[in-house]
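Q: Structure tokens for this one, please.
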Amino acid sequence: MSEHTGHCLDFDIIPPNPPNEGILFVDHSTENRSGHLGHALIEYEPGRILAFYPNCSDANRGHCAFGWMEFKRSLDGGETWSEPVEFDYSKRIFDDGQRRSVFCEKAVLAPDLAIVTVTLECDIQSDPGWHPHYAPMSLRSTDGGDTWEEPVPVSDEPGRVYDMIRLGDEILALEFCNDTTDHFVGTLPEHVYNLYVSEDGGRSFSLRSTLPFDTEGRGYGTMALLPDGSLIAYVYNINDEKNLDYVVSADEGRTWSEPATSFFERQIRNPQMTAFRDGYVLHGRSGSKGDDDVRGHFILYTSEDGRSWDSGRYLRMQEAGAGAYSNSIVVGALDTDTANRVLIQASHAYEESKTNILHWWLR
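A: Here is the predicted structure, written as tokens:
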């Protein structure tokens, strides 16, 4: 079943539309660098935020994994940001000469208030891209990201953790178990989406369930909590960029509904979903198919129920190569006296497929 409505949630976008806006957060163009995927965001104390981003070379016209992760810190709710800080684990792996790189796309706050992030670990010996994948790892920091504990495995399956959320005292991580030797989308029966759970604040993980998707041609993934407390998980279909598959769980991811689809009028690829203001936002690239006026742009959709989505609005139009890898978090949720805002971070190609990092705020 495909669902769609045209109703938009009401909020302000900063900077305001029209598109071709955005706040320049990392200017890679000055060093001919790039940074595609790896946009973990976390508010770890009221007003204190870490925003991770990749710092990579111009190999493969900039669409590459040849680099490491860095982050900037804000102590005032995102108004100002520190100078870049290298994410030590990622930089050490890159520098040790094994031709391996590490990225982190998601972070959550554990019940003990530690920062927990998960990694995408890539073999770059023969290709500067992100493929093949190793098994993902998890790292904790109890001092706001100044130091990090030794990594522990999320699973023993090679693949990519596309999303991670906190649900009560548990941390849930959605991994697409695909080493991507053949393709980043599913091509074999063993390419499955597994949900892993940590009940000890990210110190260890165990398998909770396998989601009932047909994974042929599927990739990417995002999760959110619906108004009734159930969990929804979306995945991308490379053969149908106007419809995302989704399943719903009413028991914290132990069992799942049969798959259904939601309609996205202007296409969607690498979707990211965040609950905000009695509704939801979902953003990503406006597909990779069709004419230039349709595909490749950074697009934002909204929904009141997490299943039916409006017609979308462009936040930034494509001007060079591929980009629009993104993430978002709600800032202000740790302080009842602070109005919540959504911070959106995304890559945008400035030349060929070399990308800068941009921010938007929703309020």
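A few notes: Helices lie at 88-95. DSSP finds one helix and 26 strands in the chain.
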